Sequence to fold (256 residues):
Amino acid sequence: MNPVAETGAPLANPWREGLHHIGNSTHWIVLEGVRIVTDPWLGEPADGLLHHSTPPSPLPREPDVVLVTHAHEDHFDPLALRRLSPLAAVLVPTAAMARAVRALGFGEVHVVTPGQRLGSLRGLTIDVVRGRHTVREVCYRVARKGRAFFFAGDSKLTPEIEAVARAGDTPFVVLPGERSRLFGRRVGMSPEEAIALAGRFGARRAVLSHHEHRATAPAPWRWIVRVPPVDPAEFPPWFTVPKPGEHVAFPWEAPS
Fold:
């Protein structure tokens, strides 16, 4: 795995509130002044077979918090983590991932479990929600000063995600929505499921995550893994399919 060139559009203002799309499921999110990176990735090909048709934007180096949903290389990438300040607090779902992060020099690493609430982490309240994927996965609801967003990495729907949606107090969601299959079985939410879930959240703005990739692999993997391209036309106008470097305003902020 080699680092992919960060030749996408640089972030116009990394301090601006809202979501700044870096690439894949990597987002730079500023919530009430707290800087958050989700699922850091910069290695290509990820998992030995995922290539990205659009290069990522340069990843800012000094987040306050790093949220990792699962161990796949396009979501948990040591190449990207090494470029981040070791002063950041990092959340991961397994002890093995925590050991890998600590080996990179990070001093504050939390192994999180579904149902856990971190009540005051760098000023954030973070609820850990059970996800479902081909490996152990968690999702995150993050709140500060009455503002909140929900982030799912590659997860399929779970009863726990549905319960958070029914609570109805999360107006900004970041969700996967694609048709990838492994051994013929879906591995994440479909576009239809993501759109419907955003509606159940009562979200006033939604962002599609994990959408620039394609699979290129030798036999037998090309028959085992199917990764059709995401079609932005499948999503309604309020469900943003961002390009690297694009800013998406929170619904309580003025649009970009």
Summary: DSSP finds five helices and 21 strands in the chain. The chain has a mean pLDDT of 91. The longest strand covers residues 124-130. Helices lie at 78-81, 95-103, 159-167, 191-201, 221-224.
